[in-house]
Structures are given as structure tokens and as C-alpha cells.
Amino acid sequence: MYKLFFKRVLDFSLALILLLVLFPVFFLVTLFLVIANKGKPFFVQKRPGKNERIFSIVKFKTMNDLTDEKGELLPDKDRLTTVGSLVRKTSLDELPQLINVLKGEMSFIGPRPLLIRYLPYYKENERERHSIRPGITGLAQVSGRNLLNWDERLALDVVYVKKLSLLMDLKIILKTIQSVLTSKDVVVDPQSVMINLDDARPCRDRV
């Protein structure tokens, strides 16, 4: 019953309350990022959600759009702004995803929505991660975040799907709050410690 009904009710109610309570923070971060990113405070990207249905995830934009002489974007570490670095360290970049939760595209707790191009690289059992709504935080995030390798991270996503319960969600929420307050396992530049999934393993369609 929790998985099928109450989880969504709690997601919607809590997202609405947090958006109202945190509106001043939302407004200030947006203002600072408008200045830092020359009028572009939000990062919007297509991601696969429940049943691999594509939706647009919204985050605060923590990097500028500087390019090299060939017109290609500079590495992430060179585009991360001072304001963006602070926003990432405090996990405020995830705040706009409350809108995705309200719309029913995401949940507070669930497997993180990854890139569309990763879809052919999941092992068959790992595709279970898309049987539920993706989350702002999840079991993998409170178990090591970007410090985990891909096999560990995706295995934890499947564990969450199989053992999903109110008690597990409460534990993950508490651990998430603790991680945010202590900045535990926060990596400002994920590319510095983790390679892309499509570089880490062969495409499932080619195996």
C-alpha cells in the first residue's frame, strides 16, 4: 500500500510544503545564479524516469557555458562557478527537483535519474531501477554517493526497489539530512572521481 499509494501522497504533500517554506532560499539562489550564469539559473536535461519514460529534470545551473577555441564546452572543473560550487556543496542544486516531485515525475527517495545514453549499458536486473519513480536522493547516495563504482551504485538501486518500504525511506531521509549537514561524500566535480557508465562497461546491445 505504501509503495502504490502513500509514497506518492507523501511526496506531493512534502514537496508542496518545502517549496512554500523554502521559497526565499529558492529566490535568492536563483538571483545569484542569474548573475553568475548571465541570466541562466536553471539546468534542464532529459532523463529516463519510471518505465524509462523521458522527462525534463530541473536543477540549479552550477556551471557556465564557456567554450574553447573550437566552440566545445570546457571541462566541468573549469566551468564550475564560485556560486555554483557553494550550491553543490550544500546540495541546493537539487532544490528545483521539488517541481519534478510535484509533477509526479520524481519521488524524494529512489534511484537517481541518470543519462538517457546510459540505457543500453544496464545489465538486465539493473533495469529494475526504472520500475519506480527516480528520486532526489536514494540508497546509493547515502551509501557513498559518487565514491561508489557503477556496479555498487546500480546494485544498491536494485536493492532499494526490492526492499522499498516506509521504514527504509525514513532511514534514507535521515542519512541524507546528516550528509547534507556534514557535506559527507559530497564531490563537487563528480568527473574527478567517477568515469561515465558508457566508458566503464560495454554496451548491452553489443555483448
Describe the fold and architecture.
The chain is built from eight helices and four strands, in the order ααββαααββααα. It is mainly alpha-helical. α2 runs antiparallel to α4. The mean pLDDT is 89.
List the helices and strands and how they pair.
Elements: H1 2-21, H2 23-36, E1 42-48, E2 54-60, H3 76-79, H4 82-89, H5 97-102, E3 107-109, E4 135-137, H6 150-163, H7 166-182, H8 197-200
Parallel strand pairs: 3-4
Antiparallel strand pairs: 1-2
Q: Key terms for this structure?
A:
207 residues; mainly alpha; two-stranded parallel ribbon; 42% helix
Shape: globular
Main β-sheet description:
2 strands, antiparallel
Tell me the series of helices and strands, N- to C-terminal. HHEEHHHEEHHH
Low-pLDDT stretches: none
The helicity comes to: 40-55%
The order of strands across the largest sheet is 1-2
The number of helices is 8
How much is the radius of gyration in Å? 17 Å
Q: Please state the structural category.
A: mainly alpha
Question: Strand share of the residues?
Answer: 5-15%
Overall pLDDT score: 89
State the distance separating the first and last CA atoms: 39 Å
Short description:
Helix content is 42%, strand content 10%.
